[in-house]
Structures are given as structure tokens and as C-alpha cells.
Amino acid sequence: MSLVKVAVLTGGGDCPGLNAVIRAIVRRSEQRHLEVMGIRDGWEGLVEERHERLTRQRVSGILHLGGTILGTSRFNPFAIEDGPERVMRTLQRHNVGAVIAIGGDGTLSIAREMHALGVSIVGVPKTIDNDLGGTDYTFGFDTAVSIATEAIDRLHSTAEAHQRVIVVEVMGRHVGWIAAYAGLAGGADAILVPERPARIEEVIEHVERRRKEGRKFSIIVCAEGAMVDLGEGAKLISRGRDEWGHERLGGVAQSVAHAIEKRTGIETRVTVLGYVQRGGSPTASDRVLGTRYGVMAADLVASKRWGTMAALRGNEIVAVPLADATRSLKQLDPRIYDVASVFFG
């Protein structure tokens, strides 16, 4: 029996659990009589024809590794002349019958557009922010929350010892899933997220109420995209734009800390977790979820369910249209924030 060749790529930011997905795709593809070709560096690898054969031996021992053995990029073939045509020529030249695209909003938006041009393609949702539609959770989110929670746990002791306020900035450009979950798990005294614009006066009230009650330290968790009114209306703290036109967020924690210290006189420090949330070994939960997604992706190829994506609904892995993932950002469930707010101050 001749094997159908499927190309696998990982695009966008790296994320704990990517290698679990790749491994599962290869192992399931072997059972489904599919030959797997790994594309180097995301969509750019399809344009530049950088690839390697993925075998059981090649993916052995990668389950626990962070990052992606295929490399990644934020390359968009639709942003260059003849980009989509070059992708399709690569697929034809190497007799590739299908593509599995693993990524977030950008990667899956490209996948949706390539499918509209006639490419046989399926998707796997990936983002530590957990902001993709169509699925309850994405792999990488649990790892990011675990790392942030551990950091908050460690900061509690030093904050209490020095009677300080510590503001912890976590990832979350447009949504507050990581901030809310890590803040709730870590016992934060206030959580600032993009979905709930906050006034600095509210944060200061929490801090001062704690001091009056004898608790002379506080932990504030904020997403990098949190909307905070520091006296001039709620707005993002931006450091300009990157080469793609996206705002470079970050610095909100510093602004919040400065305002708290200035208004209260309490020594206030900042910890920005940044890319440490992306790195390292994925949690057991993310390894399992990534593996389930990878198996489903290979099954979708075998059954020729093009234009669909593996998704988690409840405890089931199902197929949903790629359009469901990219139609709109999945914002933080307000019920989660309401639970966390019970413990503010």
C-alpha cells in the first residue's frame, strides 16, 4: 500500500506541548498509513522547501521536551509576492497530500485561507493564552499557569518578609486567562485583566485594607494587556509596534507599582515573568492534551475532513471548522474572575 504524505508545521510562538503533538501525529500516522514530512520553521519552511522526514525514531524521547523540534516562525505567505503559490508548488513537487498546521490565531488563519485556495488541510489549536475559539482549552495554557503560580508562591514569602507589595506581570495580550487562573491558584490580592478595566484607586483600596487588618504585604497579578486607569482613563501600556504592526505590550506592572508606591508610600516591587512561561517541560496535563490533539489530527487527515481542527469540548476531542478558531478571541469567562474577586483585598 502506497503511503499518503502529510506535511506538519508549527507556527507562531513556541509553546509547551508542541512536541507531544508532533510525536502523536507521527505515531498515529504510522497506523493510518500516512508518511509524515516535518516542515522547518512554520509556513516559511513550505515556501523555502525546508523539511525532514519524521519517523518513529525521530520523535522518540521528545514527549517531555519544551519548544518544537521543527522550529517555528511568524512568517505569513500571504504577505509576500507569490507566497501562497510557492506553498502549493512545494506541496505538489514533494507529492504532499495534506497539511497539518499547529498554531494559534495567525497560523490557523493562514490555514483557513490556504484551504479556501484548495489545499487539503487540518489544524491543531496552540496558544498558552487560551484565547482561541472553538475549543475549551489549548495545550500550553496549563504549563504557563503552573509556572506563574509557582512564581507567585515564591514571591509570597519575600513580600511578607519585607512587608512589600509585589506586582507580577504575566502573559495575556488580549485576554486574562493566565492572570486569572494563576492569581486564583496563587492567592493574589488583586488581578488585573484586559476584560475588566480597573482603576488604580481600586487596587490601592485592596492594599490599604489589608494593611489596616495587619497584613502588610500584597500580591497583585496583572496580564501584560491589562487595562488600568492610572488617572487618564483605562488604556494599554504599549512600547510601540513590532514588524507585523502588533503593539509591543508590557510595562503595565511597572506603571501600577509606581502608582501604588507613590500613593501609599509602601515599598513596591515588580516581577515580569515574560518568556519563562513558554519554556521548559510541559505539565502532564499538556502532554496528554497535546497527544490527544495529535492523534485526532492524524485521524482527520485519514478521513479527509479538510478545513477542520481538533478541539476539546468538555472531555471529548472533536472536529470543528477552522473558522471557529479564528472568528473571535475567546475572552476570560467572567465567572472565573468573579470567583477570584471574592479573595481580593
UniProtKB/TrEMBL annotation:
Its cofactor is Mg(2+). It comes from Vulgatibacter incomptus. HAMAP family: Phosphofructokinase_III. This is ATP-dependent 6-phosphofructokinase. Catalyzes the phosphorylation of D-fructose 6-phosphate to fructose 1,6-bisphosphate by ATP, the first committing step of glycolysis. The active site is at D129 (proton acceptor). It is found in: Cytoplasm. Residues 5-300 form the Phosphofructokinase domain. One of its GO terms (cellular component) is 6-phosphofructokinase complex. Pathway: Carbohydrate degradation; glycolysis; D-glyceraldehyde 3-phosphate and glycerone phosphate from D-glucose: step 3/4. The keyword Manganese does not apply. Substrate binds at T127, I128, D129, R164, M171, G172, R173, E224, R269, Y275, V276, Q277, R278. Homodimer or homotetramer. The gene is pfkA.
